C-alpha cells in the first residue's frame, strides 16, 4: 500500500469506532445517522479530505479517503457509506468557480454535501443562472448535510441543449438543503442508517457559479482534480464493502471461540469447514483489497506526474473497484454461512453485514457489468461513448506540476 496515505486521518477514523458502533442501532432504527456521530466525524475533519487546500480543505490523495471509509465501515456500513458520500463530494470544490467554492466549502469547517448524480432534474437558463426543478432518489446523508447536489438537463426555453454529438447537456447544481423537500422514501433491506431519501426542489434559482460539469476543466490544478472523477467515486464506495467484510470476519472469529458446533460438539473454531471458510474469506478480501489500492496508487503516480490515463488504465480502476466490492461480498457471505444458526440472530451482527454489503454492491459503480466493460477495454474496443469511463471527458492531458 502506498506510503502517501495520511495516517493521522486513518487513526482519527479508527478512534471513532466505539462511537460508530454505539450509534449503529439508533441509525438503523431512525434510518439516518445519529447526529452526534455525524458531528464527531465532521469535527475530525473527515468530510474535508477532498476539498481544495486553498479553501481550507485537506486535498489528500485518493488512497487516504478510501482507507478512512474502510475504517468507518468496519464499525458500521451505513456510517461508512455516508462517510464515502460526504468525503467524495468535497471534490466538487475543485470544479466550482472560486467564490462559489469558498461559499459552499470554505465558509463552514464542518460542511457536508450530499445528493445524487443521476440527471433527474431540469435547469432552465435564465439571466445569471438557472431555474431548477427536480426530484432525485437516493440522497444518502441528505438529513445531515447543508448543501445538496442535483444533476440536471439544461434547457433553453422549451428546448434541451445538446452537445455536437446530439447528447443532452447536463450540469450539477448545488443548492442549500433548506431549499429542498426531503421525502420519506428510504425503506431498505440494508444500509438503513444512511437516510437515502428522495429530495426535491421546485423552480429554485441557482446561480451559474454554483453549477459545474466534469466535462469542463477543473478550476483547481492539483492531481486530485485531474483524476477521472467518477472513478474516484467508485473507489471510495468500494471501501464500504471492504470494511463490512472485515467486520464480518471479526464477528465470526469472536463467535467461533465460544459457540459449540452441533455436528461435532466441539468449539466451532475447531471445525474444519469453518476454518476453510475463514481462509477463503481472508484470501478473497485480501486479494480484492490489494488490487484496489495497487491500482489506485499506480493511477495516482501517473496523474501526479502529469500523464493522462489510457483507456485500459481507466478501465482497470473500474475493474479494481468492482472486484474489491464483489470479493468483499463473497467473504461476508462465507462468514454468514460459517456462523450457522447464530448468524440469523440480529444480536450477532452478521445478518446486518450481509444486508449492508448486498445494498452497497447494488450501486452502478460496483455492478458486475463493469467486468465486461473492463474486458472490452482490454480488447481494444472504442470506449469513448462509455459514460463510466468518459463522463468526465475534459482535457485531462493539460499540464500538471508533479507532486513533490
From TrEMBL:
SUPFAM superfamilies: Acyl-CoA dehydrogenase C-terminal domain-like, Acyl-CoA dehydrogenase NM domain-like. GO terms for molecular function: acyl-CoA dehydrogenase activity; flavin adenine dinucleotide binding. Residues 20-85 form the Acyl-CoA dehydrogenase/oxidase N-terminal domain. Keywords: Oxidoreductase. Residues 236-366 form the Acyl-CoA dehydrogenase C-terminal domain. This is Alkylation response protein AidB-like acyl-CoA dehydrogenase.
Amino acid at each position: 500500500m502506498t506510503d502517501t496515505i495520511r495516517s493521522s486521518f486513518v487513526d482519527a477514523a479508527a478512534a471513532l469506532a466505539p462511537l460508530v458502533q454505539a450509534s449503529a442501532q439508533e441509525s438503523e432504527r431512525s434510518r439516518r445517522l445519529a447526529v452526534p456521530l455525524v458531528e464527531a466525524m465532521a469535527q475530525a475533519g473527515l468530510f474535508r479530505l477532498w476539498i481544495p487546500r486553498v479553501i481550507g480543505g485537506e486535498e489528500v490523495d485518493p488512497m487516504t479517503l478510501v482507507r478512512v471509509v474502510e475504517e468507518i465501515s468496519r464499525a458500521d456500513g451505513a456510517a461508512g457509506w455516508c462517510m464515502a458520500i460526504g468525503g467524495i463530494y468535497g471534490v466538487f470544490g475543485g470544479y466550482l468557480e472560486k467564490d462559489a467554492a469558498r461559499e459552499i466549502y470554505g465558509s463552514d469547517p464542518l460542511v457536508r454535501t450530499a445528493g445524487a448524480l443521476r440527471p433527474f432534474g431540469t435547469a432552465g437558463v435564465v439571466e445569471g443562472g438557472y431555474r431548477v426543478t427536480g426530484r432525485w432518489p437516493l440522497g444518502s446523508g441528505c438529513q445531515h448535510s447543508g448543501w445538496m447536489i442535483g444533476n440536471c438537463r439544461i434547457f433553453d426555453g422549451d428546448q434541451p441543449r445538446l452537445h455536437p454529438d446530439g447528447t443532452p447537456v447536463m450540469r450539477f447544481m448545488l443548492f442549500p438543503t433548506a431549499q429542498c423537500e426531503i421525502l420519506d422514501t428510504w425503506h431498505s433491506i440494508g444500509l438503513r442508517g444512511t437516510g437515502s431519501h428522495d429530495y426535491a426542489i421546485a423552480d429554485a434559482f441557482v446561480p451559474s457559479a454554483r453549477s459545474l460539469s466534469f466535462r469542463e476543466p477543473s478550476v483547481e490544478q492539483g492531481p486530485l482534480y485531474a483524476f477521472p472523477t467518477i472513478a474516484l467515486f467508485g473507489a471510495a464506495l468500494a471501501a464500504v464493502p471492504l470494511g463490512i467484510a472485515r467486520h464480518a470476519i471479526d464477528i465470526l472469529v469472536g463467535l467461533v471461540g465460544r459457540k459449540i458446533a452441533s455436528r461435532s460438539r466441539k468449539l466451532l473454531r475447531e471445525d474444519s469447514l469453518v476454518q476453510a471458510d475463514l481462509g477463503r474469506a481472508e484470501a478473497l478480501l485480501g486479494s480484492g483489497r490489494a488490487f484496489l489500492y495497487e491500482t489506485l496508487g499506480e493511477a495516482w503516480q501517473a496523474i501526479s506526474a502529469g500523464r493522462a490515463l489510457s483507456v485500459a488504465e481507466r478501465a482497470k480502476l473500474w475493474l479494481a473497484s468492482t472486484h474489491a466490492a464483489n470479493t468483499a461480498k463473497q467473504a461476508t457471505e462465507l462468514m454468514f454461512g460459517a456462523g450457522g444458526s447464530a448468524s440469523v440472530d440480529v444480536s450477532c451482527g452478521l445478518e446486518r453485514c450481509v444486508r449492508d454489503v448486498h445494498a452497497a454492491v447494488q450501486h452502478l459503480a460496483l455492478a458486475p457489468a463493469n467486468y465486461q466493460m473492463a474486458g472490452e477495454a482490454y480488447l481494444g474496443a472504442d470506449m469513448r461513448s462509455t459514460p463510466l469511463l468518459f463522463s468526465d471527458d475534459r482535457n485531462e492531458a493539460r499540464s500538471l506540476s508533479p507532486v513533490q
